[in-house]
């Protein structure tokens, strides 16, 4: 990087360097101002004139940005990571003394203006992570002093101009994550100073033309995620300085030969994932390059490549999503034995280890992924240095060895979907404060949960559902104040409602379904919390009594609609991004596995218990609710009319209860409602008509002998009812017309859950493919 780059990385304050040009006794000045400060606007006019270096970071106003453009003496300007928006003002083109300009990580849009070509002194230019569109501005090729150019993560279209190859000092180009098309200019590969070229995630095509490149200084070439189609030419081996090469998912027709990359003598980093790879077999050559990082996932490999035997310097190896079958060969234990930190063998057909070891041998392993294979036998113990260990979706048997607790730096331990037996080692509750995820779902584990969870625990997810665990929930879980997900569903536990969990400030998902829990769910405390709870499933237990109205007053995550459509979807998972939580939701005979859980998915399932009494009106305040299931209980009284306030609701099941009276007309205001079941109650009178009610079938209302009206065949006598199907121009009130209703009917599911966390029964195959859920009809 250039000598001025450290200046551009300052992000904690406003940093000014000014040199007096009017007096001889004034030296440099430094000012550090807090974010959001308006002090810049209040600086004396003489100071503004002499300012030549400025770095701004934070959510500053556009007023400040426009003031900056009057500072004609600026040499270095960085305003990255603000919320500046709109098109770039033309006055920016007046800052002709600029050497470095960083506008990255803002909200600028429109075409990149040609007046930037006037900044002929520029050596560094970053416009990355905005929404600039249009074609690459040809006038940027006038910047003959430019050394670093970054326009990545924008929306540029069209070809890369050949003229860019004429910039003599350009050493770094990043145009990745745009929509550039056409062939890659061969002039880029002969630039005299270019050492790093990033063109990943575009629509660029081949063929690649590497000519006269033996003297090229190119060290880094990233072309992944394009549509090159044509084979990589053997002349790529003439890049004598190339160390980092990424060619993943480039849509090459036919097979790609791995051997051509072995001729790159300096190569250390090689990404070829997502291509059909041809690996020539033969005697292993010890003169092969020593890779540090090698990614060969989704390459149609059927066995471990022999050349890996020579790779004793590997730091990261990815062979996932291939067709490698059989046993892991014993020579594989020596691959990167002293250096390997990340190994991914997931989604293959591996059955066992040729030479089983008590503890896997890599001394510096941090991430080990063996999930979704066919591994049998005892659970292998990962290296003691491991932070993330995935062995889920295999056929591992036997007990969980207590030695797992010696891996005391574990942050994620996922052993779900195996055939493990015995008890959970007691030490797993207290062996480490670093453990954030403990997932043992869907095994054959018996016994009780560990009794002692320690203070200072980092535990965020505890999922032991679908086992044979018995006993009570250990009170020591209250010490795990970072706990967000507690899933104890489908076990043999027997306890009262764990009201004391309300002290956990971060608890968001509580699943106790299909156990032997009993008694009321009323808390002995009046100031109940569960303020972040957004999924609660107590179904298929023996809970009884009335629903306490005070509970619903403090479930803040369910109370108020807070602009879901405009917010970026967030998923439940650990901070590293390696692990994402998943849960199972039951509704309308469909078992839906949410392989990702949106934080805006709000669900209450109290079905199949012995709750009684009337529904408290406070439940009508839970305006974020998407799924509400109170079926198969003994609720009485009327259906609360306040349910009409649940405007986000998409699935409502009140079947198999003792509800009385008429169906509230207010329910017709639920324009996102896709599923309704009010069957087998004691409801009377006409079924409300119009809006979503016109989409429900007879089954939604059957078993209520005194109900009448569409869709039932029984007509309402002596009651004037009109089926309400208004014309397109008809209005349901101010600002609401039939178009809105049809949008709610046709696409309410998508709007409400953003990417599909909703329960539907039609077009299940399409739904599963589109929204990444597993559906099992019961």
TrEMBL record:
Membrane topology: Single-pass type I membrane protein
NADP is among the record's keywords: no
Transmembrane regions: 736-760
InterPro entries: Leu-rich_rpt, Leu-rich_rpt_typical-subtyp, LRR_dom_sf, LRR_R13L4/SHOC2-like
Sequence ranges assigned to domain Disease resistance R13L4/SHOC-2-like LRR in this UniProt record: 65-276
Primary localization class, coarse: membrane
Listed Gene3D superfamilies: Ribonuclease Inhibitor (3.80.10.10)
Cited Pfam families: LRR_1, LRR_14, LRR_8
One Gene Ontology CC term in the entry: plasma membrane
Signal sequence interval, chain numbering: 1-20
Keyword Lipoprotein included in the entry's annotation: no
Protein origin, superkingdom: Eukaryota
Subcellular location: Cell membrane
Keywords carried by this UniProt record: Cell membrane, Glycoprotein, Leucine-rich repeat, Membrane, Receptor, Repeat, Signal, Transmembrane, Transmembrane helix
Family the entry assigns: Belongs to the RLP family.
Protein name, per record: Receptor-like protein 33
Species: Quercus suber (Cork oak)
